[in-house]
């Protein structure tokens, strides 16, 4: 009898001593075959702890690159090599270099959603889970923050003593969430708590009960006495929330889909385990330089 795709993936995982890491926005069937599902910070941590020789990263390119930078000796696979984060491409190393020259007294905090050569110019990285803590911890009063302006504005609101130089990047999946839809969902579900990602626009964050990273939402929902939640982030997270919280209700945002996160399918995961491609390749020099700000962030955990 022919083996199912899932059975073949399981077998090849053993053959290659591979681990599958999946972001919270992945398709349900991809989340189901993963060894770990999490947010950017959690998956970076898992990548440093694994004993596996091969990491199959079901997410987007900057996440797989971070796993490679932290584990240069391991094979890191991104099952669809076109799965990128358009926001990460909104800042390039040359332009950041110019901005650094304009603000020589500023420290660069790079969101993990950046390319490796941008990370190589940063003093420290952050994710949406630890951005406030990281900015607070820096000695300099002036912070150059790239590339997400909305996350930068959110951090600024929590750390008003810092002067933040913000880059004009946005995540369209979050930036385009409409206030009208949020207000309608709140009206339809008056008992529901509104949780939003800090990549949303400030007027959406103002309406929310809490702003969290995706794992922050997972942790909050688990312990909250509330039974209903409006989830102001990419819809994929609702699958994990429903699976882990039977009896609680989740209302997604109709427009909040990241097409790149949805590119990874079970068939592509299988193919990448069969061929050990597409691999993440970065130059040793870029990895060496990008590891410094990434490791600084990891050491703050
Ligand atoms: P999290 O780190 O909160 O999972 O966010 C990643 C991301 O890409 C948000 O759009
Ligand atoms: Fe990038 Fe936005 Fe997609 Fe996250 S949801 S990977 S920030 S485009």
Summarize the entry for a quick read.
The protein has helices at residues 5-16, 28-33, 40-49, 61-70, 93-102, 116-119, 131-137, 149-158, 172-175, 179-188, 202-207, 214-223, 236-244, 266-275, 284-299, and strands at 18-23, 36-38, 54-58, 75-77, 107-111, 124-126, 142-146, 163-166, 193-196, 210-211, 228-232, 249-252. The protein is α/β, with parallel strands linked by helices. Bound molecules: 1,3-dihydroxyacetonephosphate and iron/sulfur cluster.
Q: Any overview of this molecule?
A:
By secondary structure, the protein is an alpha/beta fold. It folds into 3 domains: 104 residues, Rossmann fold (3-Layer(aba) Sandwich), CATH 3.40.50.10800; 97 residues, NadA-like (Rossmann fold, 3-Layer(aba) Sandwich), CATH 3.40.50; 80 residues, Rossmann fold (3-Layer(aba) Sandwich), CATH 3.40.50.10800. The protein is built from 15 helices and 12 strands. The strands form 3 sheets. It has a 4-stranded parallel β-sheet with strand order 2-1-3-4, with helices on both faces. Strands 6-5-7-8 form a 4-stranded parallel β-sheet, sandwiched between helices. A 4-stranded parallel β-sheet has the order 10-9-11-12, sandwiched between helices. The termini are far apart. The mean pLDDT is 97. The structure holds 1,3-dihydroxyacetonephosphate (13P) and iron/sulfur cluster. The site of iron/sulfur cluster (SF4) has 11 residues, from loops.
């Amino acid at each position: 009898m022919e083996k199912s795709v899932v059975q073949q993936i399981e077998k090849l995982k053993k053959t290659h001593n591979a681990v599958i890491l999946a972001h919270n926005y992945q398709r349900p069937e991809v989340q189901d075959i993963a060894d770990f599902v999490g947010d950017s910070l959690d998956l970076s941590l898992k990548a440093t702890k694994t004993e596996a020789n091969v990491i199959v990263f079901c997410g987007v390119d900057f996440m797989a690159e971070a796993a490679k930078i932290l584990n240069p000796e391991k094979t890191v696979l991104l099952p669809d090599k076109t799965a990128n984060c358009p926001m990460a491409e909104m800042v390039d190393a040359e332009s950041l270099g110019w901005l650094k020259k304009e603000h020589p007294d500023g420290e660069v905090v790079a969101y993990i959603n950046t390319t490796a050569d941008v990370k190589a110019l940063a003093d420290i990285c952050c994710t949406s889970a630890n951005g406030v803590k990281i900015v607070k911890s820096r000695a300099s009063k002036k912070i150059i923050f790239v590339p997400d302006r909305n996350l930068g504005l959110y951090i600024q609101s929590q750390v008003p003593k810092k002067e933040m130089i913000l880059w004009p990047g946005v995540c369209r999946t979050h930036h385009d969430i409409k206030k009208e839809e949020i207000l309608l969902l709140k009206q339809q579900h008056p008992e529901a708590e509104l949780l939003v990602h800090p990549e949303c626009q400030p007027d959406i964050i103002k309406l929310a009960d809490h702003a969290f990273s995706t794992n922050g939402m997972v942790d909050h929902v688990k312990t909250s006495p509330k039974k209903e939640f409006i989830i102001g982030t990419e819809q994929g997270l609702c699958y994990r929330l429903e699976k882990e919280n039977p009896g609680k209700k989740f209302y997604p945002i109709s427009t909040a889909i990241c097409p790149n996160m949805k590119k990874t399918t079970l068939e592509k995961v299988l193919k990448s385990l069969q061929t050990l491609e597409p691999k993440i390749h970065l130059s040793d020099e870029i990895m060496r330089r990008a590891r410094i700000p990434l490791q600084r962030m990891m050491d703050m955990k």
